Amino acid sequence: MFEYYLLLTLLIIVLFIVISSLKIGISPMPTSKSARKIIVSTLQDSQNSTIIDLGSGFGTLAIFLAVNFPHKKVIGYELSLFAFLISQILKFTLGLKNLHFYKKDFLHQDLKNCDLVCYLFPIGMQKLEDKLFDEEINTTIISNTFAFRNIKAKEIIKDNSILKTPIYIYKT
Fold first, then answer.
1. Which are the contacts of 100, defined by CB distance < 8 A and separation ≥ 6?
2. 29-171 has which CATH code?
């Protein structure tokens, strides 16, 4: 009987993730360890007091940033309900006071004067680019894997994984 409830629970979780992925356009994807190190290294000299993870998924990158930058406020925005709940559980389990997750669309949030990190998909990158053109945002943007179409990256760093994933660094 326990196996039945466990299987039912897992099916419900998978269903939530699939429905959310279809609605949003992408499923939550974790950032690789080598990419996280590049992101932390890039943000090391930033004077901004806030880091925002756009589409924070299960919260692994935001947690890594909160641990590495305890003096900065780290915010994660996520639309997927299940991924958001997992990130909240992890945040409270780890007791990170400088970390905040919100189940909100980052396109409707103030992104000025902070550092932005993202692992979006092409349509998400286009929407973010449109927002950047519409508003004057003073920030560093670090994008894992996907680039903007019309904004030239200041630097492109390949991580040291087998895939050699590009990390795009923008200054606006």
1. 73, 74, 75, 76
2. 3.40.50.150
